[in-house]
Amino acid sequence: LAKDIKNEVKSDISKWVEKGNRNPNLTVVLVGEDPASATYVKNKISACKKVGIQSDTITKDPSITQDELLNLLDKLNKDNAVDGVLVQLPLPDHIDERTICNAVAPEKDVDGFHISNVGRLCLDQPCLLPATPAGIWEMLKRTGIETFAKTAVVCGRSKNVGMPIAMLLHTDHRHERAGGDATVTQTHRYTPKEQLKMFTKSADIVVVAAGIPNLITADMVKEGACIIDVGINRVKDEATGKFKLVGDVDFDGVKQVAGHITPVPGGVGPMTVAMLCKNTLMAAQKKIAY
Amino acid sequence: LAKDIKNEVKSDISKWVEKGNRNPNLTVVLVGEDPASATYVKNKISACKKVGIQSDTITKDPSITQDELLNLLDKLNKDNAVDGVLVQLPLPDHIDERTICNAVAPEKDVDGFHISNVGRLCLDQPCLLPATPAGIWEMLKRTGIETFAKTAVVCGRSKNVGMPIAMLLHTDHRHERAGGDATVTQTHRYTPKEQLKMFTKSADIVVVAAGIPNLITADMVKEGACIIDVGINRVKDEATGKFKLVGDVDFDGVKQVAGHITPVPGGVGPMTVAMLCKNTLMAAQKKIAY
């Protein structure tokens, strides 16, 4: 699916350029030298290049002040050669992430973190959606998973994944920004394990974004349910002693019961990157009227 | 509780005025001659006066254009003698309500409908909260209803009641705008009745804002649960042939099972008006940094 989306974006960009437009531009701002952040940025840039998005990375020393960063964003907001602006999180402690997210122009905010995009999402209006929930949504729609009048559980209430996907799933399909019309239960760190199981056991769709390996096991899942694993956890493999990436779901156990399940790595991750490409094209084409 | 809140607001306003400030001002804009809207506005103004809020109502002919209304709001936004601005909904069809809600300055938006206030609510930031969910929240807190790690069902997904109360109930108590840490299920018109019952039957708290008389009956409620009825429905009394106001809950039946229950009329309604007064004082004191 991620490949399909990237191919569609690539084809749309070709047509866009044939019409006399320049290639979309994504400018990524990376503060500091966190190796995980550097890897994420590298993957995003690489995917963008493949579909015809021209990408720049501006790397800043972690000593940059908040005002300097705000000035940089102001310049990028005003730069007509820049369509999408992405500030890789996390930022150093002396910089307020919310202030920075709100300083990216909403129409260039390909991460969907600006308060206007959050407000629009929650009011069922067209918006730039955060790439991870957008990717989950696309996955459900393109696989033909029914959400209408179904039950869904979203484990995790983060503002970039749990909250937005719960919002997409429960809202009205007839609204401007269409929703899934599912009955949605949102669980979190304080949901007792027995309660969590009670909800997941009867759910048609379970989206897990908790950051807890093996949170969801086979005994917690309804036969035929759709299980979407957003977790990325680095754990030691007991057999080999090496580190490996796992999700929040016991994949081998749950796949015996579930109707659909996403792997980690290779599931939601590639969809997220594909949706970032799609968001950048949307920003370049000014698809949303702000 | 509504009286308590109004008395607190009255006392706070006295202190505020003793310090040399003028009384808070709420300006209500009423378009057209809908009798229900006129009654609501009258009740709001009357409550405001009693606590020391100076209130003006600007009544406009339904033929007012959107631009004329926007100009009026612009003037009110710039007027330092006005602390709170409330545009009574609904508006005539030729006026876009979302455009109008976004045209009230966020710091004067005592209805909490501006996209910035919606975004802040959903990001767990301090904000002017819509008065109805704010009233429900105060009711829970002041009654000592535990929400932490409890289960709650919110019936209805409207943007002024269902969505905000679900947001308040499920979010983190340690965040800037504190939440209730409940596990929350949001149901709506497409939730099958059997599913609804499954969820309400095991819920510690049920908030009903669906606009459907007798949606919640005794067999759907857990022993000792807290039931909050936001519905206001005008129905014909079979016995007398007269019209009366009822909520969404079968009050007489459910009160036998519930631990707490709110009546209609007289429950959430007065709390809503009290919270509007509180919001106006907050706006006057500029309690929230926008």
Describe the fold and architecture.
2 copies of one chain form a homodimer. With 290 residues, chain A is of the alpha/beta class. Chain A contains 10 helices and 10 strands. Chain A has helices at 2-18, 35-51, 66-78, 97-101, 115-122, 131-143, 162-170, 193-201, 251-254, 268-284; strands spanning 25-31, 54-60, 84-87, 151-155, 183-187, 205-208, 226-229, 233-236, 243-246, 260-261. In chain A, the strands form 3 sheets. A 5-stranded parallel β-sheet of chain A has the order 5-4-6-7-10, with helices on both faces. In chain A, strands 2-1-3 form a 3-stranded parallel β-sheet, sandwiched between helices. In chain A, helix 2 packs across helix 10 (268-284), helix 6 (131-143) runs parallel beside helix 7 and helix 6 (131-143) crosses helix 10. The first copy, chain A, is globular and about 55 Å long. Chain A binds chain B through residues 98, 115-116, 118-120, 122-125, 148-149, 151, 157, 159, 163, 166, 170-172, 181, 183-188, 190-192, 195-196, 198-199, 202, and chain B through 98, 115-116, 118-120, 122-125, 148-149, 151, 157, 159, 163, 166, 170-172, 181, 183-188, 190-192, 195-196, 198-199, 202.
